[in-house]
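stage 2 :: seqdesign
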């Protein structure tokens, strides 16, 4: 219950994560924290030992919804090292996270696979196997089993391959299930040969429910 007073301090925020995959930029991600008597807290993000925050936000957070904030720090010197911390304040009490480890600012943009993993993908199937019926997960341990599909086909990016789904019943099945995810994102590159176009969607059948593409 929130009474609007400032009798208790916010909980210390978790240490942010900081990654650099674009030249001169660092992406910082941090989760908001909780205060027993204030829903809305002021967050300030700091770089190195500077006294001026590079981001200031007022964010509402409750124990059932704790938003995650993202900030891209730009204009940095490639090859330099930076660290970040976030502080949360209810106007009276201020708590600070630990500093992130030092991050070396990228000197050039990372390739696509590196960018996908750095964005926090739980699973990532490159489909770069030349043959077979399984595809490795390069972000986690969720091996993909392919049915009615052919690996080793031309990919969209230079030096990459893909898989062709040969029939209407072709499928790709992961070896790991996530229990009841309701909020998530999925990215897939699909090429169709129909001249009329195609409609691709993610849905959840009512019988043996699982998310399908």
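stage 2 :: out
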């Amino acid at each position: 219950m929130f009474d609007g007073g400032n009798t208790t301090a916010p909980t210390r925020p978790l240490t942010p994560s900081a990654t650099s995959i674009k030249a001169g930029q660092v992406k910082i991600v941090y989760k908001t924290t909780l205060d027993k008597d204030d829903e809305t807290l002021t967050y300030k993000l700091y770089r190195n030992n500077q006294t001026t925050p590079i981001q200031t936000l007022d964010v509402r957070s409750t124990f059932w919804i704790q938003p995650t904030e993202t900030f891209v720090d730009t204009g940095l010197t490639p090859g330099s090292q930076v660290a970040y911390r976030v502080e949360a304040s209810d106007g009276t009490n201020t708590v600070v996270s630990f500093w992130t480890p030092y991050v070396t600012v990228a000197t050039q943009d990372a390739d696509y696979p590196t960018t996908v993993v750095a964005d926090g993908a739980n699973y990532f199937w490159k489909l770069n196997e030349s043959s077979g019926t399984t595809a490795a997960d390069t972000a986690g341990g969720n091996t993909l089993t392919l049915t009615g599909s052919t690996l080793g086909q031309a990919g969209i990016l230079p030096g990459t391959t893909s898989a062709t789904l040969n029939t209407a019943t072709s499928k790709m099945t992961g070896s790991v299930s996530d229990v009841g995810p309701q909020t998530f994102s999925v990215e897939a590159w699909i090429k169709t040969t129909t001249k009329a176009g195609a409609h691709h969607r993610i849905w959840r059948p009512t019988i043996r429910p699982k998310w399908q593409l």
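stage 3 :: structure notes
- The longest strand covers residues 40-47.
- The mean pLDDT is 86.
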